[in-house]
Write the structure tokens for this entry.
Amino acid sequence: PSTEAMRLDKFNRLSGGQQKKLMLEHVLADEPDILLLDEPFKGLDSETKAHTVNTVMKLILGKTAIMVLF
């Protein structure tokens, strides 16, 4: 199988919360000037959610961000 197929297989083996966390980290790593997030913390366990919320708040400081939280 191709490298891409192997990555996709590994990604699909993650839980929904792990997939969401990985995608969010990927987006934030690019340090976008504008960030649109639709329920970015849904599906995360409470400990991961608290850590992720704190991290996102630090990373978006001084940037334009729109988040749908409910």
